């Protein structure tokens, strides 16, 4: 057992229950709240609360929000949502795909110290503490030109080492947005291993954007969690394809290293409002999980991928801090 920080306060890892591993209350960009007319605050809160209560009806007790500050993290939104829901929401420190220039002049330890401050002291002077560290490696990893040490790839690698050091110092797990078709989980795990991180405390996310089972099994074989956390449709072929990846990993003996989610938001922006969708977090429990059961997964398998895999990640991270 370990303690997990949520926007409503600390809870025991054993109390997390069934968990969606990669979601967002909102997303966009740092500072978007200062753009006149962009955010409808009351509507954002209402949408998030409605979606959380809706997915609670499906047995989901915890949602991991992987929105660091540069993706548009809003503390006022966390505070208001926390007052109106009983669903656990774990929020994040860390960094998104385009490393902010503020980090360019900082070294790994200075960036790590910033992440540690948020984890230890709270975000932006609030009482809310992150329970997880977010990283994002995507197309930018292909860009390896620029001043020495200043290319997008170099900045991504620097922040990855910083995140690993913060994870070890605080006993906090990491979850990574990755471009799975480029197999970016592999170089990330290489860095984490070099930094002495327990890979059981790492989730390599968006992994169901590839059908390369050899790659997915290689991630699980190193001890990390395979985040099958993009799920956007209830179409039969789509459910079968994405559910089939989860089932294959379960049958290969990696159930405790699989977690499920959507990468969805009820109040997502990206520069514009979308139609309200209080069911954005229901596709996994209402479509993927039933498909898995209908195709041979046991109830224990479902408990493992929806509950125990996440719990074990937090507990591995906590143990890592004790060992450090």
Give the DSSP E fraction (strand runs of 2 or more residues). 5-15%
* Oligomer category: single chain
Architecture in CATH?
A: Alpha-Beta Barrel
User: How many DSSP helices?
Assistant: 9
End-to-end span in angstroms? Answer: 18 Å
N-to-C series of helices and strands: EEEHEHEEHEHEHEHEHEHH
Largest sheet: 6 strands, parallel
Domains counted in the coordinates: how many?
Answer: 1
Decide which structural class fits the backbone: alpha/beta
Number of β-strand runs: 11
Rg from C-alpha positions? 18 Å
CATH class division: Alpha Beta
* Residue windows where pLDDT falls under 50 for at least 5 positions: none
User: What is CATH's topology name?
Assistant: TIM Barrel
On the 0 to 100 scale, the average pLDDT is 96
Overall 3D form: globular
User: How helix-rich are the residues, as a percent range?
Assistant: 25-40%
State the strand order across the main sheet.
6-7-8-9-10-11
Describe the structure.
The protein has 324 residues and is of the alpha/beta class. The chain has a single domain (3-323), classed as Alpha-Beta Barrel (TIM Barrel), CATH 3.20.20. Helices cover 40% and strands 14% of the residues. The chain contains nine helices and eleven strands. It has helices at 41-56, 75-82, 108-121, 152-170, 185-194, 213-221, 236-251, 283-294, 299-323, and strands at 3-6, 9-12, 19-23, 62-65, 88-90, 92-94, 132-137, 174-178, 202-205, 225-228, 258-260. The strands form three sheets. Strands 6-7-8-9-10-11 form a six-stranded parallel β-sheet. A three-stranded parallel β-sheet has the order 3-4-5. A two-stranded antiparallel ribbon has the order 1-2. Helix 2 (75-82) links the parallel strand 4 (62-65) and strand 5. Helix 3 crosses helix 4, helix 4 crosses helix 9 (299-323) and helix 7 (236-251) crosses helix 8. It is globular and about 55 Å long. It starts with a strand and ends with a helix. The mean pLDDT is 96.
């Amino acid at each position: 057992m370990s303690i997990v920080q949520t926007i409503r306060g600390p809870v025991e890892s054993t109390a997390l229950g069934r968990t969606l591993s990669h979601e967002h209350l909102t997303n966009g960009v740092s500072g978007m709240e200062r753009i006149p007319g962009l955010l409808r605050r009351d509507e954002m809160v209402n949408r998030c609360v409605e979606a959380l209560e809706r997915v609670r009806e499906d047995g989901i007790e915890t949602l991991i929000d992987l929105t660091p500050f540069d993706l548009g993290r809003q503390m006022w939104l966390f505070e208001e949502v926390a007052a109106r829901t009983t669903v656990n929401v774990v929020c994040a420190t860390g960094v998104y795909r385009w490393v902010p220039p503020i980090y360019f002049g900082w070294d790994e330890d200075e960036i790590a110290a910033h992440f540690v401050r948020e984890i230890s002291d709270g975000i932006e002077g609030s009482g809310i503490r992150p329970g997880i560290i977010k990283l994002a490696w995507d197309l930018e990893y292909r860009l390896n030109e620029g001043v020495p040490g200043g290319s997008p790839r170099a900045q991504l690698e620097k922040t990855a080492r910083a995140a690993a050091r913060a994870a070890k110092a605080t006993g906090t797990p990491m979850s990574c947005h990755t471009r799975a078709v480029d197999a970016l989980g592999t170089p990330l795990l290489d860095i984490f291993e070099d930094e002495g991180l327990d890979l059981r405390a790492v989730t390599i996310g968006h992994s169901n954007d590839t059908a390369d089972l050899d790659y997915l099994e290689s991630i699980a074989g190193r001890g990390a969690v395979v985040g099958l956390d993009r799920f956007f449709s209830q179409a039969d072929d789509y459910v079968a394809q994405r559910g089939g990846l989860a089932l294959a990993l379960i049958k290969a003996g990696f159930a405790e290293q699989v977690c499920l989610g959507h990468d969805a938001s009820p109040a997502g922006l990206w520069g514009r409002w979308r139609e309200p969708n209080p069911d954005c977090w229901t596709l996994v429990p209402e479509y993927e999980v039933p498909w898995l059961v209908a195709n041979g997964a046991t109830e224990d398998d479902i408990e493992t991928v929806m509950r125990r895999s996440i719990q074990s990640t937090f507990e591995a991270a906590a143990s890592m801090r004790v060992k450090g």
